[in-house]
Amino acid sequence: LEDARMAVYAAMIDKLDQNIGRILDHLEADGTLDNTLIIFLSDNGGCAEVIAPNPRDMEIQTTFEGKQIQFGNRTDLEPGPADTFMTYGLPWANASNAPFRRFKHWVHEGGISTPFVAHWPKGIAKNLIAHEACHLVDITATIYDVAGATYLDERDGHQVALLEGESFLPMLQGKTWQRDQPFGIEHEGNRAWRDGRLKLVSRWPGEWELYDMIGDRTETNDLSGKYPDKVAQLSQAYEDWAKRCDVLPWDVVKAAR
Fold it and tell me: Staple partner for 242: which of 99, 113, 150, 247, CB 3.0–4.6 Å?
């Protein structure tokens, strides 16, 4: 059963790969491939969640042909057909995320580290592997930079939210680059603050942990007890960011539900 779950997952990845190839073949055929910026990135972390049988909150309950979908990681169902809906579970998520900690939903590296590929032969360096810390919001800023476009702060009389990201185009071009500003992450109470090589992270409702992302990317050596002043400084920066970005405390959100 576990083998079949991973086989279906691998088949989905293969189908995705084939269709990305169709897009690239089309761009190559019309002569635009070399001067097209292509960005590909995965979702955030392997999913360790298990779907319960017959969940009521699923919006789609039938296939396109009208067949009832059978939900849940049930041992009596063969993974794969269109009328089944299950996950590949905790063990395969652990394998997918190795060697990082935690999974999708949490904000330790296993839940936020995202493989990222950029392809643009006429605009960026070839065969470059970069390890600088970026955030999804930096993609927008980079696209504006590549296009030579100006981000508007007002449109039709309405204020536009500030652009949070920073362009990493210099990094793609093989130049030295690192983010000027730290950034925050929050998902259902799980919190993180990345400032240079330091990462402050908490699994809800736990306490803050502190890691050196250069020397300890796998988050195995918690430095919070050794550097309490740094924890206080970074946690205050996180709180300031959360207030500015309307991030509500998770206990408040849960109570409202």
Answer: 247
Structural contact between residues 186 and 201, judged by C-beta atoms closer than 8 angstroms:
no
- Quickly count: other Cβ atoms within 10 Å of residue 53's Cβ: 11
pLDDT at res. 48:
93
Cβ atoms of residues 50 and 87 within 8 Å: yes
Going by C-alpha positions, the residue among 82, 91, 95, 7 that lies closest to residue 49 is: 91
At residue 254, the pLDDT reads: 77
Which long-range contacts (C-beta less than 8 Å, at least 24 apart) are formed by 174-182? Answer: 174/124, 174/125, 174/128, 177/130, 177/132, 178/132, 178/133, 179/132, 179/133, 179/134, 179/135, 179/138, 182/234, 182/237
Report d(CA 93, CA 100) in Å as an integer.
Answer: 11
CA–CA distance, 85 with 130 (Å, rounded to integer): 37
| Residue ranges in the chain modelled with pLDDT below 70 | none
Give pairs for 228-233: CB < 8 Å, separation 24+. 230/198, 231/200
User: Distance between CA 141 and CA 163 in Å, rounded?
Assistant: 7
Q: Which residues on adjacent β-strands are paired with residue 85?
A: 71
The pLDDT assigned to 255 comes to 76
pLDDT of 5 reads: 93
Backbone angles phi, psi at 46, to 5 degrees: -65, 145
Residues 131, 127: Cα–Cα separation, whole Å: 13
* Confidence (pLDDT) at 231: 98
Is the distance from CB of 39 to CB of 168 less than 8 angstroms?
A: no
Predicted local confidence at residue 61, as pLDDT: 86
